[in-house]
Amino acid sequence: MSSAATRRVRLLYFAWVREKIGCPEESVELPVSVATVADLVAWLKDRGPQYGDAFARPQVVRAALDRVHVKPSAPLGAAQEIAFFPPVTGG
Amino acid sequence: MSVRVQTEDFDVAAETEKLLGSRTDVGAVVTFTGRVRGSDEGREIAALTLEHYPDMTEAEMARIEGEAQARWSLQASLVVHRVGELKAGENIVLVITAAAHRQAAFEAAGFLMDYLKTRAPFWKKETTSAGESGWVDAREQDDTAAKRWT
Q: For chain B, is the Cβ count within 10 Å smaller at the N or the C terminus?
């Protein structure tokens, strides 16, 4: 059970972000004080060296909230699925 | 109007026929095919492996197609993007735009490709003929190309 001070979210990682972190997705209990994408990156960087490595240059890591691109300043709001990935290279 | 992600190859003529059939109101059709280039900045490329964000990819492609429809008077459009391992010379992406006149079809096809390259959640990993592999970096010129539409 999550307490009032945390909420459970699903984190997804792609391409070299996934490789550096070492897993494609995980479920985490997020403190409600983690309010924006940039806050979440800072919170993740404290979780271990693999996160520090993946977010060593946070400006090159992109994010999506519930499958929509967002900027680092975006509030997490009620997003259930938060994805981190390098700049896209399709086409 | 549709978008699709698939591992298998596509047939440009068959896709065009399926999209347009016997319509007589279409005066201009632009088809663009992106292929795996066998070299990049001096490296010999044997294959690309395309990863994507399955739950987001088609939604983002549909948003991009919707923007193209809002900007140009398109009669039909199709975007097909392949994923998985693709060898040099294989097809990666297909864009078809159909309109009454050529300008809308040309411009919308350019817009769709520029936005696919900068917004659709795909990532390429290249394998060289020497067997080395690495993630392809995003190119500044793709961002510059996309900005011409804003």
A: C
